[in-house]
Amino acid sequence: MGKTPSLNLLKGSKTMKDTVRYVELKEGEGDHELEPLSSGSRFFHEPGFNIYILTKIGVNSTIHIDAARDFCIQMVDKYPCFSKVVVKDKESGSMNWVPTHVNIDDHLIIPEIDQNMESADKFVEDYVSNLTVSCIDNSKPLWDIHILNARTSDAQATCIYRAHHSLGDGLSFMNMLLSLSPKASDPEALTTLAMNKKAHHHTTKAASFISFCMVLWNTFVAFMLFVFTTMFLKDTETPMKASPGVEDRRRRIVTRSVSFADIKLVKNAMNATVNDVIVGIVQAGFNRYLKGRYEEINSPVPENILLRAMMSYNLRASVNVDASTKNTNEDETWGYKVGYILLPFNVKNRSDPLDYVREAKAIMERRKASLEPFATRFFAKTLVPKLFGIKIAGKLNRKVYYNTTFGFSNMPGPKEELCFLQQKVTYLAPSIYGIPSGLMIHIISYVDKVTFVLSAEEETIPDPQKLCDDLQISLHHIKCLVLDKPCAEK
Is 261 exposed, middle or buried (0-12, 13-18, 19+ CB in 10 A)? Predict the structure, then answer.
């Protein structure tokens, strides 16, 4: 059986617990090339918040090194942020982006693989797990690409794209990928991300005034809950809530894909949105999972569990990031433009699983009728850093994750099949590690599938595949009820 390469074979990698050392800016160097890190990017260089984006991309044929090298060259040429290093000023401690020479071979990693291994799926999962306890040397641009030419159950080969979160948010990276990956059906054309259509409502002046007051009230309540969470408000201690130090521990990144048609079926039947259905599925899945975890210790599930997600929310007007933007400034389209929503999840046992979707719809409606992500971003990224400095702001930011149960992100994906590294893409699975939370759930659509991507810390969620099963079974039960059919356990 083939062995997973050890960490010391991953070029330029250090363990997450190693002391992070930056290139120091000497007096007089780079005076005309300094680009300060935005406040959002700066957070990702604070202790305990060294977060990396890690995306698995499955393709339907062997990946050739020349195609991978060409992709890296195009990426660096089109997006200069991938040819910059983080430089720390020795006197002030400020951090800046500074252009540097990029040696592609330092960023392209292709390990030797035993094609006769017992399980290629386990090999890829273990390889990714090893990456989650490593970081890229700060003396070079903070990204790399790993090519695993091993045939798994859902792909002929796997590309693992890794980059430090300070380079940009998930939508920036997804749009970068799309700008360099043509449609599988038309090599001369590019695809775009799926985008929800916004409904237009005609209201009277009185109704508009009432709606405006509701938005202000909902925003105020949400903002105060966020502030309280940075200080003292904690979720209930359940088996899903991680202990301190979780950001440095090993994680498993697992995926489960379901039919987009099934989710749309539930959406249309319940007059809901895709997001409502997804949140309802997660609530139902968590209920099943928690019951199983408490049964293991012969304990009933506690009543009135406070279980919340720290949800990332795109603040751009569109999900399609301008591919011509060539810097990492937060004022530009590329970068880190994300607000936060504290999303409560009701995991009480329900005799009617459709209630999970109904409750999710009510929760999401309240969130839509507020400016919560803008308010929380202003507090975390502007107000606190200016009043108390980046160190205090970083500690408060981490405390929000510690005091909630998990992270949550729902990202639209490509509407049409992609061709990546000259091969057709079979699946996309974006995730992160280094986060101070025991579980991170990313949800992404790709053509006719919706994929749940779980980044689970091994001590907190030792059986992430079981949680995937519970999510899939929950959708199956909800779909059966919508169709009014008998629901056999899958």
Answer: exposed
* Cα dihedral sign, 199-200-202-205: positive
* pLDDT per residue as tens digits for the range 302-319: 888 999 999 988 887 666
Decide: 467 and 289 in contact? Cβ < 8 Å. Answer: yes
State the Cα–Cα distance between residues 152 and 479, nearest whole angstrom. Answer: 29
- The residues near 311 (Cβ < 8 Å, ≥ 6 apart) are 340, 341, 342, 343, 407, 408, 409, 410
Mind telling me the catalytic residues?
A: 165
- Give per-residue burial for 240-255: e unless 16+ CB within 10 Å, then b: bbbeeebbebebbbbb
Mean predicted confidence (pLDDT) in 233-262: 94
**C-alpha–C-alpha distance, residues 324 and 345, integer Å:** 39
449-452, Cβ contacts within 8 angstroms, sequence gap of 24 or more:
449/257, 449/258, 449/259, 449/260, 450/257, 450/258, 450/259, 450/260, 450/263, 450/278, 451/255, 451/256, 451/257, 451/258, 451/427, 452/255, 452/256, 452/257, 452/258
Give the separation between CA 174 and CA 111, rounded to whole angstroms. Answer: 25
Q: Which pTM does this prediction carry?
A: 0.88
Q: Where does 56-194 have alpha helices with state H?
A: 65-78, 120-131, 170-179
**Residue 188 predicted with pLDDT over 70:** yes
pLDDT digits (tens, 9 = 90+) for 170-185: 888 888 998 899 888 8
The two three-digit tokens of residue 253, written as one number: 């990144």
The number of beta carbons lying within 10 Å of the beta carbon of residue 345 is: 23
As given in the structure block, the two tokens for residue 333 are 């389209």
Mean pLDDT throughout 348-376?
91
Classify the C-alpha dihedral 308-310-312-313 as positive or negative.
Answer: positive
- Are residues 391 and 26 in contact, defined by beta-carbon separation less than 8 angstroms? no
Please compute the mean of the pLDDT values over residues 125-140 and round it to a whole number. 93
Report phi then psi at 140, rounded to 5. -135, 165
Query: What DSSP character marks residue 378?
Result: I
pLDDT confidence of residue 24: 54
